[in-house]
Amino acid sequence: MTPSNRLKLNLVLIAVLVFYWLLDQAIPDAVTPYDDIVLSASTPITPLSPDLKQLTTDAEGIRKITQAHPGQTSVIPLATDNASQIATRLLIAQATQKVDLILSEWRIDEASTRLAATLLDATERGVKIRLTIDDRTLQFSDKTLFSLARHPLISIRVFNPQHRVSNYAGIRLWDYFSGLKPQHQSLREQSIMVDDLLAIQGGIDGDGNAVARDFLIAGVALNSMRKHFDQVWQHPLSKDIGEVFPEHPFILHNLSPRDKKINVIYQTIQGYARTRLSLSDNQNFALNSSNLAEKINGNWTHSTYLHSDMAHEQIDLRLLELIQDARSSIQLQIPAPNFPSSIRQALAAARQRGVHITLLCDSMTSNKSAAEFVHYRNQRKSLIAQGIHIREFKANFQAESSGISRNTQVMLIDHNTLYTGHFPLFSDAKNSPPASAFIIKEPLTVKKMSDALEHNFSSQQVWNPQTDKPDQEASFWRKCAYLFLRWWQVFREQ
């Protein structure tokens, strides 16, 4: 071997060793919003309480109103901005027995910190917490979530944890390419139920800039919602977080709130919530005992709450019936559409009947996941050919106060029926989580949603994919990610 070739070989070996060393390094602890909170010697040992106790939901009054409307459901649309987050914190702050949550996202941000602080406050009153969360956004270095998991009154389960979120970069990389969880196996809803009295369907978005239009619910629908929460919690694919991440230091060393490390985290979370995130800072949705009861009492309707097992047949068939019954218009807003053949055929048949169909969705620049955009991009040309009018959100889209965010997933039929919740985006439902959806026919709610969709469709913050060529606006690296994932999708399907 010549000296030059020997040198090249040595350089290659050194590069491989350095790369392997980098992959084997532990990822440092994630930076949290409350890291700059400094605890003084006078800080109480017990967790601080967020400034929420001034408000009340008047539980007994709501129960009386509910009993006066048997067989009916009260559905209250929550406004945009952070109204759903405020309503969520309020409901938890007033819980006396239990709180059930289903979250598709848990991020290391202010929204999750607010939620964590309110959950800790509830446990001081003896409230039991059940949290089921998808693993897509979990981070091994998230001390907030793993500290919550060590509380005796907080139980956390991870749904279908195929995508292991390890603390080592090499394992993360291997998991991504070898066993990435299919999207249809992920939780795609965010809901909360408090004391079997009130619920919020669809909300608690972790993105502070785009909160989806959610619904505060009371009445008979909560009976079905309770069954749905139990289905998700007891699902064979819901695993205890300690079973999924036994190597996490908090779990490995069996830490408890009595241990200083956990106790300090609790104190700083609560201190951050109290000093910086007071509820009085926002008046967009001022829930209190008087106006909440008034709102609930004025919104009773015969809305239908659907929930199903792993196969989703009941909801999918009902959704197809709604599309087949459409006579004049179908308004769709789905951030990442990937319609199975049954939905595509139903939409095509509706177009042949003369039904006007519009679709609002994310563009390559606004979509949070390039993998999700790949599926929609593969169908876009055929949807346009069917006569479906499509608009794609620009990256900087911001919903107005009367509108809805681009995260909202809804369908409106003939301006008189609103469908929100589960939408079949994949033909293979194997290992999919239990699903839920709402069919709402309350005229005022439906009209407001219809107006908001029409406003979004005609906004200057959307692109027409036929004339504007929005893919060209994406960054070079996003285009590269899209091309790679498209190739990877074809490769895995071989």
Q: Can you walk through the features of this model?
A:
This protein is flat. It is of the alpha+beta class. It is built from 16 helices and 17 strands. It has a nine-stranded mixed sheet, sandwiched between helices. An eight-stranded mixed sheet has the order 10-16-15-14-11-12-13-17, with helices on both faces.
Topology summary:
Blueprint: H1 3-23, H2 59-67, E1 73-77, H3 83-93, E2 98-103, H4 110-123, E3 128-134, H5 143-148, E4 154-159, H6 169-179, E5 191-194, E6 198-201, E7 215-219, H7 221-234, E8 238-240, H8 241-244, H9 249-252, H10 260-276, H11 289-297, E9 300-301, E10 304-308, H12 313-325, E11 329-333, H13 341-352, E12 356-362, H14 370-385, E13 389-393, E14 410-413, E15 417-421, E16 435-440, H15 443-457, E17 462-463, H16 476-493
Parallel strand pairs: 2-3, 3-4, 11-12, 12-13
Antiparallel strand pairs: 1-7, 1-9, 2-5, 4-8, 5-6, 6-7, 10-16, 11-14, 13-17, 14-15, 15-16
